[in-house]
Amino acid sequence: MSADQIDPQAKRAATRQSRIPLPHGGYKLKLLRLLTDPLSRLQNLNPPSVGATESVAIPGPAGDLDARLYRPAGDPPYPTVVFFHGGGFVLGSVETHDWLCRHLTRESECAVLSVEYRLAPEHPFPAAVEDAYAAVEWAAESTAALGGTGDIAVAGDSAGGNLAAVTALMAAERDGPAIERQVLLYPGIGVDPEQESVSEHAGVVLSREDIEWFSAAYYRSEIHRRNPYADPINAGDLSGVAPATVVTAGFDPLRDGGRAYAERLVADGVATRYENYPAMVHGFMTMRDVDRARDAIADVGADLADALDA
């Protein structure tokens, strides 16, 4: 499906977002990181209600990882969704994705464990991957502490969608932990500058320069870029990974990469639901004034509830 125009609500949200251009390194990046969490906390003053939230420290390969656990209303146990935020591997935090994680908790009736991981360029690949996999291992081993059923899913948006897919691949290749579902929201997977979506939509939320800088900051070399744990589109066999939900946006430069990965999953026999929102833009599921964001979160929540028997 295609759309002739960007949804007006998404266009307004993207225009507001574009007033703070993405920095490409150095002092401006550090300044934006310092400003992002306070601004996010202001936006989150009246958040969607959940049963409870809890700060969690997860042992990681280079020190504890900060995380926030969102518990649904009702009594435990609950299935657990380990969530990884987006931000091009250089930005983002628990705070920037609080609204999305709260709605995901409500719609799925699962506990959502939102995890912070080391960011590039200070910590390039494979630091974020190591942190993400360690978080999933910890969640699988910490059923009692999480009030969990033992059922685990992974989810993430943009760069976090890449990490969710990579952890699902690693879990399949390393015989665990068992992952029941992977939810990839406009993931940063399989992006090629020659793709139609990049050619036509670069500059809508993400410019070609943004994509190139994020990629260089994270991968650092072409050798790393071709590693399946850096970009799972490079995996030789995906047949053992968890069933998937893949969401893309019609006006997103990353659209064709996400679709290509969904097609690879299907070709390798992985049960996959692929949904493209034709009038949407990159990052739309974090845009609280966009009605279709809530629709998409509800659909994803239903997938998780079905997969995890929540």
Give the strand order, joined by hyphens, for the main sheet.
1-2-4-3-5-6-7-8
User: From the helix content, strand content and strand pairing, which structural class follows?
Assistant: alpha/beta
Residue runs with pLDDT of under 50 for 5 or more positions: none
What is the gyration radius calculated from CA atoms?
18 Å
Q: Count the strands?
A: 8
| Order of H and E elements | HHEEEHEHHEHEHHHEHEH
User: Counting H and I runs of at least 4 residues, what is the number of helices?
Assistant: 11
Largest sheet: 8 strands, mixed
Distance between the termini: 31 Å
Strand share of the residues? 15-25%
CATH topology: Rossmann fold
Notes on the protein architecture:
The chain is an alpha/beta fold and 310 residues long. It has one domain: Rossmann fold (3-Layer(aba) Sandwich), CATH 3.40.50. Helices cover 41% and strands 17% of the residues. It has eleven helices and eight strands. It has an eight-stranded mixed β-sheet, sandwiched between helices. Helix 6 links the parallel strand 5 and strand 6. The two termini are 31 Å apart. The mean pLDDT is 95.
SSE map:
Blueprint: H1 8-18, H2 26-43, E1 52-58, E2 65-71, E3 78-84, H3 98-108, E4 111-115, H4 127-141, H5 143-146, E5 148-157, H6 159-173, E6 181-185, H7 196-201, H8 208-219, H9 222-225, E7 244-249, H10 255-267, E8 272-277, H11 291-308
Parallel strand pairs: 3-4, 3-5, 5-6, 6-7, 7-8
Antiparallel strand pairs: 1-2, 2-4
At a glance:
With 310 residues, this protein is α/β, with parallel strands linked by helices. The chain contains eleven helices and eight strands. The chain has helices at 8-18, 26-43, 98-108, 127-141, 143-146, 159-173, 196-201, 208-219, 222-225, 255-267, 291-308; strands at 52-58, 65-71, 78-84, 111-115, 148-157, 181-185, 244-249, 272-277.
